[in-house]
């Protein structure tokens, strides 16, 4: 764990008091051992400028957080920079559109307790005094850790920053805690306030829920019960209670989705794909009768789901590359393992080598979450075939072709234009069918054949003028 140097700590303690604060205190007390994350510190009894001058003796000081009473302080470990947040005690509440701005008042004369009582939950409102290891716990955070409860610090906590409601369900999922009764009632009453929070901040809490919780379903269930899900992900809320008759699923669409997420590895792309993989089943559902028994079909739900995933993730301002990965996984999650080697190579080409194993994990989770005792031996065998094919290093992308765009222009004696891309795509399709064709001379002959067959098209002529 990265720690401040002893020299810096002792210098600060000569002038004032220094405390470890934040989530690492909670994690240390919860696990009984130091947390792995970097530590945050708070200093009382020393002014901002004096503290900055003092710390400069031992490392680099960045005052970018001056308006918040925060110093970014960097020391070096074996030549590598390690940065800590060192702050003065302050009071604050969020303001402005999206609750992205904060009204802050910091004062070195404030007691540590005055800083702690502004925080979100009692389990986060504790500090450890450096030099004595005294635990400062004005709100009973240790007792709530023992009881495994998430409890708000003060009644207007969620009004001051509605994002804390999502943080509450995230902590409950991550630590397998319950949300204290009055705290949950306050979340349910104020759930609509989450609309005032920026998309980026909401996305970050969803990311933490999916990546850090062993069972994100716990958080999503709390969101559904409190009304937060209808505000943040109404598309998923619409899946609640949608039955899947026909003997293939033991659960409704919502419960199946949550179980699929839990069964996936802790990767953001694959767990988001699990969240969206059946999200349009309510819209695609068609009632049928099979052998005299009621059932249902959901034809096309994967394509609808990919479109919904793209729309929702854009709404939440997720990164473009992540959106592409998630939509690809959702769109392809109904793949079949009963394919020839040619079909296998085409699937890898369409999904991409890095993403293909996420797709297999999604299928395994999907089958497990059906609740019908289904096996995934076919997926395991398919993975073995994929790995064997990858070991043979066949071409899966344009970069793998033995010719590039410049070669095609030289061979066909044409200028740059759309035709070059079409030729390369054609060549890739041929070598996906038969990797042995990926030889410069063979591809040159295929390029000429393709060009001769298409060059009479008026569009091609115009594009190459």
Tell me what you see in this structure.
The chain is of the alpha+beta class and 465 residues long. The chain is built from 24 helices and 13 strands. The protein has helices at residues 6-15, 23-31, 48-55, 112-116, 141-147, 157-160, 163-175, 181-190, 199-212, 217-226, 228-232, 234-237, 253-263, 268-276, 281-284, 301-315, 320-332, 341-351, 353-368, 377-391, 405-412, 418-433, 440-454, 458-463, and strands at 17-21, 40-44, 60-62, 70-77, 80-87, 90-95, 101-106, 127-129, 135-136, 149-150, 178-179, 286-290, 293-297. The strands form four sheets. Strands 3-4-5-2-1-8-9 form a seven-stranded mixed β-sheet. Strand 8 and strand 9 form a beta hairpin. The longest helix is centred in the C-terminal third of the chain and has 16 residues, at 353-368. The N and C termini lie far apart (63 Å).
């Amino acid at each position: 764990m990265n720690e401040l140097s002893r020299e810096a700590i002792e210098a600060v303690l000569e002038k004032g008091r220094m405390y470890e604060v934040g989530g690492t205190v909670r994690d240390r007390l919860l696990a009984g051992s130091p947390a792995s994350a970097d530590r945050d510190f708070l200093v009382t009894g020393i002014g901002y400028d004096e503290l900055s001058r003092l710390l400069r003796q031992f490392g680099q000081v960045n005052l970018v957080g001056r308006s918040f009473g925060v110093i970014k302080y960097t020391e070096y470990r074996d030549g590598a920079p390690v940065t800590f947040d060192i702050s003065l005690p302050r009071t604050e509440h969020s303001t402005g559109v999206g609750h992205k701005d904060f009204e802050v008042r910091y004062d070195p004369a404030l007691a540590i307790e005055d800083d702690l009582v502004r925080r979100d939950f009692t389990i986060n409102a504790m500090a450890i005094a450096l030099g004595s290891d005294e635990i400062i716990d004005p709100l009973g955070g240790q007792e709530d850790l023992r009881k495994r409860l998430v409890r708000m610090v003060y009644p207007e906590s969620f009004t001051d920053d509605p994002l804390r409601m999502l943080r509450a369900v995230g902590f409950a999922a991550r630590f397998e805690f319950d949300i204290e009764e009055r705290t949950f009632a306050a979340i349910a009453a104020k759930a609509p306030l989450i609309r005032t929070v920026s998309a980026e901040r909401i996305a970050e809490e969803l990311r933490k829920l999916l990546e850090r919780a062993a069972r994100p379903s716990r958080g999503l269930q709390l969101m559904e019960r409190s009304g937060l899900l209808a505000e943040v992900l109404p598309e998923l809320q619409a899946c609640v209670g949608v039955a899947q008759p026909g003997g293939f699923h033991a659960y409704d669409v919502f419960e199946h989705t949550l179980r699929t997420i839990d069964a996936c590895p802790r990767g953001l792309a694959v767990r988001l794909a699990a969240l969206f993989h059946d999200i349009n089943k309510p819209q695609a559902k068609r009632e049928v009768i099979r052998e005299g028994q009621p059932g249902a079909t959901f034809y096309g739900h994967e394509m609808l789901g990919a479109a919904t995933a793209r729309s929702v993730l854009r709404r939440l301002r997720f990164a473009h590359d992540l959106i592409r990965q998630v939509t690809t996984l959702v769109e392809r999650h109904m793949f079949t393992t009963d394919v020839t080697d040619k079909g296998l190579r085409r699937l890898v080409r369409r999904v991409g080598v890095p993403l293909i194993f996420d797709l297999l994990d999604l299928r395994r989770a999907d089958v497990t979450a059906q609740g019908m005792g289904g096996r995934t031996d076919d997926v395991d065998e398919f993975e073995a075939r994929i790995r064997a094919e990858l070991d043979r290093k066949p071409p899966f992308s344009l970069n793998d072709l033995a010719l590039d765009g410049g070669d095609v222009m030289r061979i066909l004696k044409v200028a740059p234009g759309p035709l070059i891309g079409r030729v390369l795509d054609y060549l890739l399709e041929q070598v996906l069918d038969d990797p042995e064709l990926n030889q410069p001379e063979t591809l040159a002959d295929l390029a000429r054949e393709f060009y001769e067959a298409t060059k009479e098209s008026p569009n091609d002529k115009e594009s190459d003028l």
